[in-house]
Design a protein that fits this description.
Length: 101
């Protein structure tokens, strides 16, 4: 195992087998080009979308203030963020694609 900052690269070659595939193999550190800004931009892009605007509009239409609907949406996104970060930890640290773990 080679470790650089908090990223880990598996140095041992994968054993041959029917479940081994180049697409499912761990990614090397040199191939991991995303940083914190890329991941944050992806999350913001998934959070700020048309269904979110529709949710805010329906909350306001149901009687909430604009700031109450904004707080509810921000709180909901923050709650969803925690399991997303926990789930993504293995992929970002070890380079393991999602279907493997």
């Amino acid at each position: 195992m080679t470790e650089q900052s908090s990223l880990v690269e598996l140095a041992a070659p994968l054993p041959p087998g029917p479940l081994v595939n180049a697409d499912l193999a761990p990614t090397g550190i040199g191939q991991r080009t995303w940083n914190l800004w890329h991941i944050a931009s992806l999350w913001v892009g998934m959070s700020v979308c048309i269904p979110t605007y529709m949710l805010a509009a329906s909350m306001i239409d149901a009687g909430m203030n604009w700031w109450q609907s904004l707080v509810a949406i921000l709180l909901g996104n923050a709650i969803v963020l925690v399991p997303l970060v926990i789930n993504a930890h293995a992929g970002t640290r070890y380079g393991i694609p999602f279907p493997v773990f």
